[in-house]
Amino acid sequence: MTRASLLAGGHQPDPAALAEIRARYHLDDPFPVQYWHWLSGLLSGDPGTSMVLKEPVTALIGARIGNTVLLVAYAGLLILLLGVTAGVVAAVGGRRVDQALTVITTVLMAAPAFVAAILLIWLFATTLSWFPVYGSGTGFTDRIHHLTLPALALSGGYLAYVSRITRTEVRAELAADHVAAARVRGLPRWTVLRRHVLRNAAPPIVAVSGVTVAGLFAATAVAEQAFGVAGLGSLLVQSAARQDMVVVQALSLLLVTVFVLVNMLVDVLNAVLDPRLARAGAV
Amino acid sequence: MSAMSIPMPLRKPAAKRGAAPVAGLFCALIVLVAIFAPWIAPYDPDALDPLNAHAPLSARHLLGTDDLGRDLFSRLIHGARTSLAGPLIVILAAGTAGAILAITAAWFGGWFDALISRTLDVLFAFPGLVLAITVAALFGSGFVTPVAALSLAFVPVIARVMRAAALRERNLPYIEALRVQGFSGWHICVRHLVPNLAPLLMVQAAIGFGYAMIDLASISFLGLGLQPPAADWGLMIANGQPSILAGFPQQSIAAAVAVVITVVAFTAVAERLATRFGGDHAPVR
């Protein structure tokens, strides 16, 4: 298959169309020139036009990025709120609570996103009808309503992981001398937990959560596809199935860039939380 | 869910030691089922019986039938073949390539190490799932493409840990002693470094197997892996999705349970290997 027919979506269109594609993508130029055309287009904000949908990639992304950002934010919020809370509760709540939470997190960790999605669809499509199991919705509240199940499916495993890390870190801090000293000084339990334990346990938790949220962007593919959400992940999957290379290339570049940027942001945030890291040259 | 590039450990706390033998037996059973699938399965996995579609669980059809009347139990058994072979190939390929890159990088050091390490860092920025989807767009769906893409995505994950270990090992006095005795670098690497790093590599491979299985099942689920009518667990989960809404969840649930139990079993065994061979110490960056 030639590159022109690959760009046409794997079909064999007529020679005139192929010639047009060759001209538009400068396929007869030497490789560095082609690369320059693509790179300069990308840097000036034009990653190209989808050969299959006949729409500019920027328009395709623009129409869907809102859903994906909302989904990632929703899932990220669930992961942080529920994960950290569950971890702290497991660490300070006594043996029974700890064991119960360990069982729950073990189950959550073992279930990948598509399994969680299937179980949620089964539960909410047949028995309960609290949340819609398909589509993206319109307007803010309706979108949140539609994105609840995808966000739950997406966050399950990560939530369990963050909860585990939080539990371990909080446990370690609780055993530290400075916490004992704070307690001896007669500080209220909650103040000790907030000012002394959580403050010190935060950097590793932030690091893990950050990497997790960065990974969420890639993981949206499964959740969006399972629940029929029109987002970047489902666009990537559908474009890949259509062999729409221009869209796939732009989207994977975008996802990887976001992944790297979020990871960098986490490093910076960690340096703010723990200035020793910055002095050690970790950033 | 992506490769190990998204650090979501399937590893459970080491306390669950009692479960390892059971998990090991289950793994062996699954492998045997996969190998002898055609002899074990009661029906032809592709035999259509539209008049008997969505049959409930019964003695004739242990797990019932799917929307086309195919026996789900037989399809599940046959599905074990591709569902296990995929991750196995990924782990063998990525483990071999990762180990070779790691040991040569640690051994030669200098600009060679820097070149390999930076290249792996760039590759590391690609979540395995995104890489697999991109490659599927280029080369089409099927069995080989996602397996090849995922192997590539797993190389930096394994190579990073192995390089750190190889670097530690290389600086131990016995390596210097061997050098002084005049042994060649090749001899020291193959006869001493590799055997000493093998347990860690084995642990990495065993843990990676679970991740690879989930990733490949995800790709199948997304429709970019094996195509119908193949009996593959990830594909079965996706194909059963419309039936759930009609009130027949058997196909998706059965395949999902198969994936989860198998991943948990293989991971429990990996966990046991890790505590046994001391591969548990945190990888040095």
UniProtKB/TrEMBL annotation, chain B:
Q: What is this protein's name? A: ABC transporter permease
| Keyword annotations from UniProtKB, A to Z | Cell membrane, Membrane, Transmembrane, Transmembrane helix, Transport
Which PROSITE patterns does this UniProt record tie to the protein? ABC_TM1 (PS50928)
Domain called ABC transmembrane type-1: residue spans: 80-270
Query: Which positions, given as ranges, span the membrane?
Result: 20-41, 84-108, 120-139, 145-162, 200-226, 252-270
Q: State the InterPro entries in the record.
A: BP-dependent_transpt_permease, MetI-like, MetI-like_sf, OppC_N
Which membrane topology describes this protein? Answer: Multi-pass membrane protein
Query: Which biological process terms from the Gene Ontology are attached to this UniProt entry?
Result: transmembrane transport
Species of the source: Actinoplanes utahensis
Q: Which GO terms describe its cellular component?
A: plasma membrane
